[in-house]
């Protein structure tokens, strides 16, 4: 497909990067807040679509993981969106508990101040 | 810093990947909708913080670009958030026009249906 076809097609043809990964932005289906950003390979994307729960690829552990497998804080998929060039996904999810492993509701719990400090929200 | 320090520090220490890039998720500051996802190198991050307008690194063109430089559809930075392990940013922005180069309001204008088709929102 040409670049233009990719933007207009109704066929889902996710484009994985050189490491075989695609970025997945998880947002709260109700409030819209960004909860976490992780990566998927083809297998974790397939598992997410088949099971209805977010699965990712851990770059540090080099393994497939189901978000919340040990904590119980799973992310139930409500809707999946893809961007214009099909190299990024947005997952609208229902979070069963805090999305962040630090137990914060979202991984983005700090803002960057103009002087380069981080401030908890 | 240890992993735990990175999660709790009030120092902004963005962690760029092996290509020197960090993912930036741009969301509408008012409604919270994800508008686009792009990448920043250290220079584009610095330019964004200095100028108050989103700058990125184009992987395809291998160059710094100011979003909206030719179209006028700039993204004014309202607030920047960083995630727990400081390898991803959320930019809360005010968009001066469509964020997507296709002239859609957001790059995420298609949802993935269960049967693998894309549907415009």
TrEMBL record, chains A, B:
Binds 1 zinc ion per subunit. Binds 1 Mg(2+) ion per subunit. One of its GO terms (molecular function) is phosphoribosyl-AMP cyclohydrolase activity. Its cofactor is Zn(2+); Mg(2+). GO terms for cellular component: cytoplasm. Pathway: Amino-acid biosynthesis; L-histidine biosynthesis; L-histidine from 5-phospho-alpha-D-ribose 1-diphosphate: step 2/9; Amino-acid biosynthesis; L-histidine biosynthesis; L-histidine from 5-phospho-alpha-D-ribose 1-diphosphate: step 3/9. Residues 36-109 form the Phosphoribosyl-AMP cyclohydrolase domain. It is found in: Cytoplasm. Coiled coil: none annotated. Pfam families: PRA-CH. GO terms for biological process: L-histidine biosynthetic process. Keywords: Amino-acid biosynthesis, Cytoplasm, Histidine biosynthesis, Hydrolase, Magnesium, Metal-binding, Zinc. It is an enzyme of class 3 (hydrolase). In the C-terminal section; belongs to the PRA-PH family. In the N-terminal section; belongs to the PRA-CH family. Homodimer. Catalyzes the hydrolysis of the adenine ring of phosphoribosyl-AMP. This is Phosphoribosyl-AMP cyclohydrolase. It comes from Croceicoccus ponticola.
């Amino acid at each position: 497909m040409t670049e233009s076809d990719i933007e207009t097609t109704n066929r889902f043809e996710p484009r994985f990067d050189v490491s075989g990964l695609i970025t997945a932005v998880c947002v709260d289906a109700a409030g819209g807040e960004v909860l976490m950003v992780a990566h998927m390979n083809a297998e974790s994307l397939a598992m997410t679509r088949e099971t209805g729960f977010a699965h990712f690829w851990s770059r540090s552990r080099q393994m497939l993981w189901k978000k919340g497998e040990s904590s119980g804080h799973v992310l139930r998929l409500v809707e999946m969106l893809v961007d214009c060039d099909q190299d990024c996904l947005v997952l609208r999810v229902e979070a069963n508990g805090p999305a962040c492993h630090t137990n914060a509701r979202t991984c983005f719990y700090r803002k960057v101040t103009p002087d380069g400090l981080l401030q908890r929200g």
